[in-house]
Amino acid sequence: MDSQFGLMNVWHQGDVVTKAVAVLLIGMSLASWIVILIKALDVVRYKRLAKHSQDFWHSEDFATALNKLGRDDGNPFRALALEGREAAAHHRNTKAHLHDALDVSDWITRALRNGIDEFTARLQTGLAVLASVGSTAPFIGLFGTVWGIYHALMSIGSAGQATIDKVAGPIGEALIMTALGLAVAIPAVLGYNALVRGNKFVLTKLNSFAHDLHAYFVTGARVQSGGEATVVALKKG
After folding, report:
1. Cα(234)–Cα(221) distance, integer angstroms
2. Could you tell me the maximum CA-CA distance found in the chain, to the nearest angstrom?
3. Which long-range contacts (CB under 8 A, 24 or more apart) does 35-43 make?
4. Where do the MotA/TolQ/ExbB proton channel domain residues begin and end (predicted)?
């Protein structure tokens, strides 16, 4: 038995506006799922890198520690370690000319903060798409529903027939647009919330690593969670 309802009926019987709304919602759904999959893979990768970042401190010198972070230029922990090393070296080479005007702690803090800010911006790329889809898709679907109901009622009025079998089909097909809007918005909202939580975890680990790097380059000691500074056997270089 052929169904009187369905997205295909909406497509075949709908006008240009209805088809445009359907295409827009499908495009938004594809965009949101692409963002969710790509960013989810990134979060999993960064969490794995965060777990391995603790190996950095179990090294005899800085070069060995850097090698333990791998050669991946996209590794934020490796990039932060390089930023800290370059900032410390730059301060050592220039402070004589600046008459110690720049404090080494402030200089390294600024360099590490800039590195974290750049990574944060990269980490949040695409989240605006999910937020936009999650907030607008239900209203776009509702617009399609209202437009479809309006034209269905106009057609029924022109035909002069208002029996239930004539009303149920067009109205039901129009309501599918609302369901489509919700089907697009719900995964986008859930994906956005999950990615925000994952990003927060990664940034927390990165900030902790940056705090240890700052203490190491300034004092030669890594600040432990207990608040005491423990000197590690890691030579600067």
Report:
1. 9
2. 93
3. 35/126, 35/127, 35/129, 35/130, 35/191, 36/130, 36/187, 36/188, 36/191, 36/195, 38/126, 39/126, 39/127, 39/195, 40/191, 40/194, 40/195, 40/198, 42/123, 43/195, 43/198, 43/199, 43/202
4. 100-201
Rounded CA gap, 98 and 7, in Å?
70
Residues 211, 182: contact at Cβ < 8 Å?
A: no
Q: How far is CA 48 from the centre of its chain?
A: 17
Q: How do residues 28-63 score in pLDDT, each as one tens digit?
A: 999 999 999 999 999 999 998 888 887 887 777 777
What's the CA gap between 151 and 147, in Å, rounded?
6
125 touches 136 (CB < 8 A): no
Taking a C-beta distance cutoff of 8 angstroms, is the pair 140, 181 a contact? yes
* 222 or 201, higher pLDDT: 201
Predicted local confidence at residue 198, as pLDDT:
94
Residue with tokens 């991946």, as numbered in its chain: 72
Its pTM stands at: 0.78
Cα(177)–Cα(169) distance, integer angstroms: 14
pLDDT for 81: 87
Closest CA to 122 of 66, 199, 48, 209: 199
CA dist 135 and 133 (Å) reads 6
Distance CA 178, CA 141 (A): 4
Give the chain's length.
237
Query: How many whole angstroms separate alpha carbon 150 and alpha carbon 40?
Result: 41
